[in-house]
Amino acid sequence: MPEGDTVFRTARSLNAALAGDIITLSDIRVPAFATVDLTGRTVDDVVARGKHLLLHAGDLTVHSHLKMEGAWHLYRHGTSWQRPAFQARIILETADWVAVGFELGVLEVVPTVEEHTVVGHLGPDLLGPDWNADAADTAVANLMARPDVPVAVALADQRNLAGLGNVFVNELCFLRGIRPQRPMSEVPDAAGIVALAHRLITVNAERSARTTTGVDRNGQRLWVYGRGGKPCRRCGTRIQHGQLGRTELEQRETWWCPRCQT
């Protein structure tokens, strides 16, 4: 599942392949931007902002969000794609590479000076180069600004802090011993959660397989996420499963251990 660590690695790979090179072919397969031609522009850089990906080319920014199914792939010219062509939303070619964005949940091109309209709402980026003590304090303040919101909902809200998806949210709640339904007003150490979130996502940004248990083996990488009905790895109690969200239309899956999380 694409979360901040996945997007960070994707941006790093795209930047290493494309930055400084001229776009020789541009094919955007989203009706609203199908007439935009980036051919001849130089890719300045590709960066991640939370779970958003920004490709800068002169005065234009290609903004994408992977959502649930999206992915960016890099191919050498003449090699076969790993996903069907009908899933491609954008194709950018340079002299050396073919970059393809498949099933992107969001794909748009905006003037770079207006980039704030698509990512300006985000809170401090856990993997951003500007993450520091002040950013952490801002994230904590954002989380506590609505004390009635359940902790899992607050952590997933990208306006509070950017980068956490449902996997990290559920795992963080377990690691801190807090049930996901617990309101922020009852969370004893919001700063501790933010600090752990930063450590956890930073470590996983360097890994191809996400793990929160420290065990890098299939079926043993996560504590509670996706493990409803299975025994807790710590105490043996069956993991519970439910749904939680800001609204009825934004319900997310949640998992917790009824004994380890209070």
TrEMBL record:
Residues in Formamidopyrimidine-DNA glycosylase catalytic domain copies: 2-101
Signal peptide start-end: none
Ranges of residues in domain FPG-type: 223-262
The EC number(s) this enzyme carries: 4.2.99.18
Any one Pfam family match given in the protein's UniProt record, by short name: Fapy_DNA_glyco
Gene3D superfamilies noted in UniProt: 1.10.8.50, MutM-like, N-terminal
Enzyme class: lyase
Necessary cofactors: Zn(2+)
Matching PANTHER family: ENDONUCLEASE 8
Family label: Belongs to the FPG family.
The protein's name in its UniProt record: DNA-(apurinic or apyrimidinic site) lyase
